[in-house]
Amino acid sequence: MSFANDINSLHLPYSRLPTPEGLAPASVTTFDEHLTRLIDAYTLQGIPVLVHCRGGVGRAGLVACCWTLKLGLCGWIDTQPDVQPQQQHTSRFSYIAPEDLPPLPPSETVRRDTLQLVERVISLVRRRRSLKVVETFEQVRFLVDYVEHLRGRAGRGVEVGSVLERNIRGP
C-alpha cells in the first residue's frame, strides 16, 4: 500500500511538496504560495499540521523554519535599506585572513540582520525538534533567500508576518 493510500484511508488531508533529500524547494515564490495556503487553511483555523520528510529533520526542519518566519514568531524583518557596512560572511578559505579575501560580488553579500534572523529561527526549531534541523548549505541558503523574499514582499506593502494579527483583527 502506498503512502497516499494510507493517508486517504485515514481520511487525512495531505499536501506534497516534492524536494530531493538534502536540498531545498526549487522556487522560493512557489514555496511561499504553497505555505500561505497551508497557513490560511490550517494554522489560522487552529488545525494541527504535521510536516515530515524521510528523516524528519532536514527538509521538514526547513519547512518548520519557514513556517516560523512566515508567522513572524522569531522577530521580524527590517524593510529599510541596510545602512551599516556589509560584513562579508564567507568561509571560502578558512586559512586566508578575511581582509585578504577578494570582495564578494553584490549578489553574494547577505545582510547582517538576515543572517541573524536565519540563525535565530534555526536555533529555535533545533531546540524544539532536533539538533539536525536544516542539514545542508542549500537549505540554509534557501532560508536566506526566503527571508529576502519576505522582506521584498513587506517592502512592497504585501502583508507578511502579520498573518496571526490579520486573523485576530479580521480582514
From TrEMBL:
<dbReference type="GO" id="GO:0016791">
    <property type="term" value="F:phosphatase activity"/>
</dbReference>
<dbReference type="InterPro" id="IPR050561">
    <property type="entry name" value="PTP"/>
</dbReference>
<dbReference type="InterPro" id="IPR057023">
    <property type="entry name" value="PTP-SAK"/>
</dbReference>
<dbReference type="InterPro" id="IPR029021">
    <property type="entry name" value="Prot-tyrosine_phosphatase-like"/>
</dbReference>
<feature type="domain" description="Tyrosine specific protein phosphatases">
    <location>
        <begin position="33"/>
        <end position="73"/>
    </location>
</feature>
<dbReference type="Pfam" id="PF22784">
    <property type="entry name" value="PTP-SAK"/>
</dbReference>
<dbReference type="InterPro" id="IPR000387">
    <property type="entry name" value="Tyr_Pase_dom"/>
</dbReference>
<protein>
    <recommendedName>
        <fullName>Tyrosine specific protein phosphatases domain-containing protein</fullName>
    </recommendedName>
</protein>
<keyword id="KW-0378">Hydrolase</keyword>
